[in-house]
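Human: Not sure, check this?
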Amino acid sequence: SRHDTYPKHGFRLFFREKYGSAKLNYPLFGEEGASEFDKIDLRTEQNYAWNNGQSYNSFVRDVFARDLQRDMGQPYTRSRYYHLYLNGMYWGIYQTQERSEARYASEYFGEDDEDYDVVKVNTENWGHLIEASDGNLDAWKKIWDLCVKGFESDENYYALLGKDPEGKPVRGGDVMVDIDNLIDYMLIIFYTGNFDAPASSFSKNKYCNNFFAVADRVDKSSGFIFFAHDSEHSAFDEAHTPGIGLNEDRVNLGKRTDDMKMLISSFSYFHPQWLHFKLTANSEYRARFASRAYNHFKKGGVFSPEMALASLNKRVSEVENAIVAESARWGDAKRTTGSPYTKNAQWLPEINKIRNRFIPLRPAIVISQLKIASLYPESDAPVLSTSAGTVSTKDYIVTNPVDVKISNPNTSGIICYTLNGTDPRKEGGAINTGAISVKGQATLSLAESAVVRARILTDGKWSAISEVNFIKEQSVYPGLKITEVHYHPSDYKLGADTISGQDLEFLEFRNTGKNAVNLSGLELDSAVSYSFPAGRLLPPGQYYVVASKPARFW
């Protein structure tokens, strides 16, 4: 955008006291996001853009990738489209984008700006070196050191999760990475075929580009999370060098045998895809990745054609009329011959390539690539159904007693399921204690809330997990007990710091009954204020802890 041959530039707006107001107090994203900002980006997709003489700009690829992260239930950066005028002159279509930095993290996750580390790529002078735009690189370096050791052993893998060598949580253990967030982030890269993030084909996959990693130094229970960013080189049907189009394989970069093989030999270029690649040496990580991949690609998942198309079309509908104005402003900016680029001649065909080719065909291609990397299950997950049909949602409302069938869609294998909230698969691959094994079909008669988690086990290999919360409205709670109250403990010394005892207060609840308890709608409103999340079920025998300050409680 800063290149002097680009006539249409992106902008960044800063709000500071020396200019007037220190903050922009306006809900740029409605109820979807924050209403106070001190920095905001006005992006304009530059690659393949009309103002650069290219015809392939869709205006939706980057936002589409970030919307997928939202649809996965992960933190994401929000956007809205705008017409921009500068001193009365029309300048074209732009999009706001939140910047995933410390201010963003403080707004959405709590704590102070100073408590966050933000790792990004510094592209100054085309160096593509990582830097800490907030905080420092110390925590990111610890992860790199584990990568150097490798994750073939479970000990190093569990260390990343703040666990002991047996996989048990360590009190006060330092969770370095949100593993599920990393998996979902990489799946977006793989699905969209993004060949410029976080490993870049423009540097033959030896350097990094276009990623943000954010971690809270105070809350040791979370670890680094990753944000989809600048995904213009993605979702292509045809080849755009160095990308190859619909069959782009970002999954197996580390196993290539040519000069495009991904290889990171220095901490200065360390990025999340290299972390993922090193983690694939660990069987527990592969099993976790495979299960999440299956559920994102299955019918109703974010990458299923019907869901992906709905997400794309929402953005298309927001921008399609405005394209006419963009054409009037920039359609002939670098056209020395021929007609200007227009909505009907260039933009709509580009959109239809994504709609009619990429979205329907891409899932099967990526699933095949994941299978090559042993990152996708060999068997299908169990199917849960009622008399009304297949249950395809995570939450199912129970109004009357219901019979739930758990079926095996494969030609072999057994069903293993639990009702106590645990995974039927024990880490290491054995059947978990408390899991029920059934040949053929299982039928459950549910009159109360229940958490059903099921897998298929075939010749020692597990399917992905199917999990459904069957939620019944509850008016009495005979099995719900307060089992511990930690009220106003003494202040706590942590190194040179003193933590207030009030930060360590908590209440512990336990479900002592035989059925799951629906905690939705319950509130604590006295010395402790807390609203239990919608759809929250507490399985039998399980605990729920409400802490005054969870980051300190860990």
The radius of gyration is 25 Å. The longest helix spans residues 343-372. The CA atoms of residues 65 and 188 lie 7 Å apart.
